[in-house]
Amino acid sequence: MPAYVVIDLDVSDPSGFQQYIDGVTPLIEQAGARNLLIDDNAVVLEGDWEPATLVIHEFASKAALQEFWDSPEYQPLKELRRKYSSVKVVAGESPDLPWQDRPQS
Known about the structure:
Layout lengths: L2 E9 L2 H17 L3 E6 L13 E7 L2 H9 L4 H10 E9 L12
Antiparallel strand pairs: 1-3, 1-4, 2-3
């Protein structure tokens, strides 16, 4: 079942951050994932969350996402990302169940 990464991204140095983009894009593709959304003008419909840039990636599964996140190739890119931006990152999986049939927490 697909897993989604939702990122609240605030880039402090666009030219430096481009190094991260250049490195991470092929890794995302190699992981079989894809960018679904990159929006620096997201509309807040309710609440107080106002991401500078909203990013959503889709992976085949949480396992594929975790493998990408923990991969040795991605580790130096995380440091590069942290150098030129700040992020909040969450991930979730989307079971193919009707809403009422999902496990309750």
